[in-house]
Hints:
The chain is α/β, with parallel strands linked by helices.
Amino acid sequence: MIKHTIYNLIIAGTLMSCGHAKQNNAEAATVTETQPTFCTDSAMSYLKAQTDLGPRVPGTEAHSRCAAYLRSTLERLGADNVSVQDTTVTAWNGDRLPLHNILARFGSQEGVAPVLLMAHWDSRPWADSETDETLSSRPIDGANDGASGVAILLEIARQAALNGTKVPVEILLIDGEDYGAHDDESGDETSWCLGTQAWLASDPYAGSQRPRFAVLLDMVGGRGARFHREYISDAYARAIVDMVWHEAAAIGLGDRFVNEAGGAVVDDHLFLNRAGIPAIDIIENQNTETGSFNPTWHTLNDTYENIDPTTIGDTGRLVSRLIIK
């Protein structure tokens, strides 16, 4: 999947039983209002369905099958409408990649700007963080790096259809995020996030309401993950970061969503912000073991077995509160 941290960046279905996820600390005792439902078991089933297909590398059979699965699932869940941008892009190494950006709308209202929720669904073609060079050319499952964010958004889609939304919502499952150059061989961050760049180039909001803001979910299923405030998010959309991290503290997730500065990540939100859509990235970028991303990042260990359901549940519950009635 994606990305690299740049600390010095300069910028101007059948579902198992579900209960509310446990809140992490005593702050939760202050919450009295009803909280939206988020079913962790359901989200985990969506995650497993993706990884069971194998690595979702653009141009492979698994990639084509996953695109069909995601579209049919959103349609089955009851989106107002589902559209797919089919396009072909050229990667930094000359590879021609067929991409499919999948957009679903819920609670559409004429003249009311939506909230955009977003995650990438492709997986990294190379396990280039493996120390064994004989393994580094293999594609990864991308359970955390890709499938985790998508799984949360599919469950939020299910809840949006069942319970309604506070505001119009767009769910964008973006393709081609993780085909970027090894160690920045391209010398240009635009080797990453190819699907988002193609989507924005199509002028998707010509004649319609642009999102009031966007929330990107990326690598949101790691064991014991803690989410610091990502640098680019703070630089472009600090008010949105403040709102989300305040909400996390209000529901007892202050230990999970750490209200401290984290690293800068070249990810899909960078291109949204450059296009004038305030966007933040919920991403683990200060792991205690690595100092940056989860230890499974771009390795063959990024598998379903290494996903933490509690992390999935906490993140899903928080994002649900932004939009579910």
